[in-house]
Design a protein that fits this description.
mainly alpha; Leucine-rich Repeat Variant; 3 domains
């Protein structure tokens, strides 16, 4: 005899829209507690496909279905089952339907699914040579064109998806592919959204782990890369003409005037860590010196008060000192 929960899950496929609506709302509410997630997880082979089929329906049904899937996908074992049943493909196909009203939730679902290597592979379309990278290209294009300050930003959470896929070598290689220019688009994203800023900084930092083999591709976008990395760590000072005349115009212009400081230490840490990965390479150090990067780190370090960020500055500064005999202001300031 079917349990009450089994009967409830069965109603997700009811032909009556009102019954289906009531059932999906109750299932969504179940996923709001640990006990509910555990109970539904026992019927994952039924409940996950049933919820997935509801994503294409009207918002009154698709929204609670998507909310339930987002909650369920926080459990790695359930996220893994979703990947196996092609939930990444279903999410992407639904996301780009013209009448889709649950884009933000679908992207949050992708964030959870790309916590897994299998989810990243699915989003990269690694198994399909002809389609490889198409999903990511779509997401990057939407991310870079949809920033609406003060309005609902359905693609904001793509920032977290990009961080996830760039943790894996195949994802970094795709973003650094010069034919696609994806990292260049991401780096140029200018938004006041903290989530977006953190995502851009984290993605750049992850991609810099490829500096040993792909430094040239990274430096090809240096016009945008150095400002993205150096402005967050430049401190609050208005720079002198003596400092700025050694910098490219885009850096010199920004640092010659008062500017809004980057108050989030996580972004500063990510930026300095990315710089460190770049200057580990000789050509990276030369490029860094060419934009007067060491001076910016010196000034920024003097204004820094976050312990983790200070440690990142000191690590980069020590490397520069060892390699070139840079003035030891960075280490002296910390003593």
């Amino acid at each position: 005899m079917a349990t009450e929960l089994e009967e409830l899950i069965g109603f997700l496929s009811a032909p009556s829209p009102p019954v289906k609506k009531i059932a999906v709302d109750i299932v969504r509410d179940y996923t709001g507690s640990e006990d509910g997630l555990e109970s539904l997880g026992k019927y994952s082979n039924v409940v996950l496909p049933s919820l997935s089929r509801l994503l294409g329906e009207k918002k009154v049904v698709s929204e609670p279905a998507a909310q339930a899937l987002v909650n369920l996908s926080q459990k790695p074992e359930l996220a893994g089952k979703m990947v196996e049943m092609h939930m990444v493909r279903t999410s992407m196909e639904t996301l780009y339907k013209q009448d889709c009203e649950i884009r933000s939730l679908l992207i949050m679902l992708l964030v959870n699914l790309t916590q897994l290597d299998a989810g990243i592979d699915s989003l990269l379309q690694s198994a399909d040579e002809k389609m490889h990278g198409l999903y990511v290209m779509k997401l990057v294009r939407s991310f870079c064109s949809s920033s609406c300050e003060g309005k609902v930003d359905p693609f904001e959470h793509v920032a977290s998806v990009l961080v996830n896929i760039s943790k894996k070598e195949d994802g970094r290689k795709l973003l650094l592919d010069q034919k696609r220019c994806l990292l260049k688009q991401i780096v140029r994203n200018d938004s006041k959204s903290l989530l977006r800023k953190r995502g851009v900084a984290g993605t750049i930092r992850n991609c810099c782990f490829e500096a040993e083999n792909q430094l040239q591709n990274l430096l090809l976008i240096s016009e945008f890369l150095w400002p993205a990395l150096l402005l967050p760590v430049a401190g609050n000072k208005v720079y002198s003409e003596e400092d700025t005349r050694k910098m490219p115009l885009e850096l010199a212009s920004a640092l010659s005037i008062e500017r809004e400081p980057v108050t989030d230490p996580e972004i500063r840490v990510q930026a300095v860590e990315a710089i460190y990965l770049l200057i580990l390479q000789e050509a990276g150090r030369r490029a860094f010196w060419s934009v007067n990067g060491p001076r910016i780190l010196q000034v920024g370090y003097a204004d820094e008060d976050d312990p983790k960020a200070m440690e990142a500055y000191e690590r980069a500064g020590s490397l520069l000192i060892q390699e070139s005999g840079l003035d030891e202001e960075l280490t002296e300031t910390s003593s």
